[in-house]
Amino acid sequence: MEGLIDKRVLKFAPGARRWIALTFLSGLMGSTANIALLFLAGRIIVGIYDGRNLLSMLDLFAGMLAAIGLRAIAEASRDITSQRSAAMVKRSIRERINQHLLDLGPSFVEMRNTSALATTVLDGVEALEAYVGLYVP
């Protein structure tokens, strides 16, 4: 592993890279909407201190509503794309583990505690969901 992201995880599902990129872009869009929301709120506060009429700042309020809507769309998109990318990686890893166990043959499983092996495989793959879905993007 080099750097912050383990590239071995990404090689398991090349199709997930697109979803990871969309998750990143959705997060960036949500962050931009948050910055716009704070900027507009600051402008409204300054306008109130300057004695401006609230009706004269309707454009700022409309901009805040638009930023809130954009943030909601970005967060929903981020959640959907992160779940999709994590599911693709988990499915690919499960298929590879299954094929590897089949290649090892029944004699390998006979000498192992199968419940411990199943728990390790299931918990290990499930632990990747947060990593691939949230951390990597």
Please supply descriptive tags for the structure shown above.
81% helix, 137 residues, 6 helices
Describe the secondary structure blueprint for this structure.
Elements: H1 7-10, H2 16-49, H3 58-104, H4 106-110, H5 114-126, H6 128-135
Describe the structure.
The protein has helices spanning 7-10, 16-49, 58-104, 106-110, 114-126, 128-135. The protein is rod-shaped and about 80 Å long. 16% of the residues are buried. The longest helix has 47 residues, at 58-104. The two termini are 17 Å apart. Helices cover 81% and strands 0% of the residues. It is built from six helices and no strands. Helix 2 (16-49) packs antiparallel against helix 3 (58-104), helix 3 (58-104) packs antiparallel against helix 5 and helix 3 packs antiparallel against helix 6. The model has no long low-confidence stretch (mean pLDDT 84). It is an all-alpha fold.
